Each structure stands twice: as C-alpha cells, then as structure tokens.
Hints:
Blueprint: H1 2-18, H2 20-24, H3 43-69, H4 80-91, H5 94-127, H6 129-144, H7 151-158, H8 162-186, H9 190-198, H10 203-214, H11 216-240, H12 249-258, H13 262-293
Amino acid sequence: MARLGSRGAAAEALAVVANPEAAALSGLDSLESGVVRSHPWRAGHIWAATWPKLLAIGLVIGLWEIVHLTGWKKYVLPGPGAVFANLWDQMQHAQLWQAIYITMHRAVVGFALSVLIGAVIGALVSRIKPLRAATGSLITALQTMPSIAWFPFAIILFGATTNAIIFVIVLGSAPSVANGLITGVDYIPPLLLRAGKTMGLSRVAMYRHLILPASLPSFVSGLKQAWAFAWRSLMAGELLVIILGQPSIGALLSAAQDQSDMTTAIAIMIVILALGIVVDMLFSKMDAVIRRRRGMADPAA
C-alpha cells in the first residue's frame, strides 16, 4: 500500500510538470476559472502594450529636440527632424534593407548555434557533478569576458570573414544559455526528481518529460540574456570586420563614422535600437505565454 501511495504521489507530481495550467486551476484557483479571457491580440491588449513604449520614445525625442534647440554641439548633433528625414530616405533604397537582412541572418545563425551548444553543455554540466566541478566556474568566466576581446583571436583564426563574427557571437552568448539551463535545473524541487525515479523514467525520459519542462522559465531568461550578448557581439564584429560586398548594419555605421556623417550614424543607430526592441518583445511574449500556462499570471488581467 505504501508503494502504491508513493507511486500515486509521484504521478501527481509529474502531472504538475506535464500540465501545469491544469494543475494551477485546481483548488482555490478553480474559483477564477469562470473568468472570460480575452484574445491576446485584441486592440485593447495591443494598445496597453504599445503606449508605454510610445511614451518613452516621445520623451526621448522631446529631450533630444530640446538639447538641439539649446545649440549644444550645433554643428555636430543634428535634430530629430533631420535624422528621421535621413532614415526615411535610406528606407527608400535597397542598401539599408540588404544590410538589415545580412545582419539579422548572421544574428540568427550565431544565436541558433549558441542555443544548441549552450543547451548541450548546460544539460551535461547540470547533471554530471565532476564535470560541473571542473567547468562550472569556467562557463561563468566566459560569460563575463568582453566579447570584443575575442576578435583578434577570431580574425587570426578565421581571417576577416563572417565565420570570425559567428565564432565570437557563439563565445559571447552560449555561456548565458548554459547558465540559464543550469540555474533552472538547480531550482527543480527534489520531490519531482524523486517522483521521476519512482516512476522508472530513464535518463533521457527524465530530461524530456521532467527536467526540461521544469527548467523552462529560467532557460528562457537565459535565452533572452544570450540574445543581448549575441547582438552586442555582432555589432562589435561588424564594426571591426568589414567584408566587401556585404553591406551590413555595422558596415553602414562604420562608413558614416569615416565620413563624419552624424545624421546617418544616428539614423543607423535608431535601426539597431528598433531591431533590439522587436526581438525583446518576442522574448517577452514567450515569457508571458509560459507564465500563463503555468498559472503564474492573473487570469483576470
């Protein structure tokens, strides 16, 4: 009977991981199940998520215009009107869109490799104690190392090519992916691990059905941090490694610097900022979906 009771408790614990949303609606939470949830893409939701960003942009542009009107660095710092006119003019030509495509292609390839390598390393280090004792601090040290310091090594190794940029992106972001997964595994309740062993799950099944789902929130946070490191590494690489025939965003920014064209430089910086905001919104949406499915979000919100 005790054995059957332990198996029942184990099954309930695994059910929480497998279907966290249903588990969240049990008990007192079921009192809120009658709340009608509106569609996340309704106009009200879109406006609620958009207006704070629009307000922040308006404040920055207003402060920028005030500084410009004071005459500070008058012949160097252009006003918002000149910069947005320059940006609109660049958007009418294919060069800017080609540069965005090349830069985003590098970012996606580098980030995908970082996720693959970081997830494998994190999965191994988190469950193999001798490996963690040997390499745990090394992963953190790689995460704190400035990515730009790797470029002399990468250029000597690969030459002034795209491979050098991808190499630095991976070195800069893969440790964040690994640390995110390691942290998520560390915070898994021991009861769930014992439940998985009681149910007779193999090592592979334990990762697939228990460890990875339970560590998903921390893993997503690691992915978001990894993207930030990857994006910074990419921008630094494109400023240092100029490849002929590939007009990346970094190459356009470097050309504006060489010509002392502050208006174009700021316009390109706005493009970089806009791309970063779009990707951050995607990660925020992913995080919100995970929290909602795990019952961590207010159903009435």
